[in-house]
């Protein structure tokens, strides 16, 4: 399964064409569910928690920096406003 690719597939499919797949999925519900579970399981097996943790820490650090800048700006604005009064 690794390294699989689907050649010759036009992934830019209009919604109307996708809607035609729904009745087919209903008729073959068991096969669709089984395929979905295989894909889901494979995806979950390949996702590494460690990769997510590093990205989350980086995002959290950026968030904290922005919040500190906003808080400092609000305090500074209030101090300048109070002095002018």
In short:
Helices cover 78% and strands 0% of the residues. The chain has 85 residues and is mostly helical.
Description:
The model is unreliable at 1-5 (pLDDT under 50). The longest helix has 36 residues, at 49-84. Helices cover 78% and strands 0% of the residues. The protein folds into two domains: 13-47; 48-85. The chain has four helices and no strands. With 85 residues, the protein is an all-alpha fold.
Chart the SSEs and their pairings.
Blueprint lengths: L14 H5 L1 H7 L1 H18 L2 H36 L1
The largest sheet is:
none
Q: Radius of gyration in whole Å, from Cα?
A: 25 Å
Residue ranges: pLDDT <50 for 5 or more in a row?
Answer: 1-5
CA distance, first residue to last residue: 71 Å
* Content-based structural category: mainly alpha
Number of domains: 2
Mean pLDDT figure: 79
Name the helix and strand elements from N-terminus to C-terminus, one letter apiece: HHHH
Q: Which term fits the overall shape? A: elongated
Strand content: under 5%
The total count of strands amounts to 0
Descriptors:
85 residues; 2 domains; 4 helices; 78% helix; 0% strand; elongated
């Amino acid at each position: 399964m690794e390294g699989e690719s689907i050649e010759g597939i036009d992934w830019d499919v209009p919604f109307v064409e996708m809607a035609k797949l729904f009745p087919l999925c209903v008729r073959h519900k068991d096969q669709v569910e089984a395929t979905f579970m295989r894909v889901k399981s494979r995806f979950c097996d390949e996702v590494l928690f460690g990769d997510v943790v590093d990205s989350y820490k980086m995002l959290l650090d950026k968030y904290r920096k922005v919040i500190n800048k906003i808080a400092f700006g609000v305090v500074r604005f209030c101090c300048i406003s109070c002095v002018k009064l």
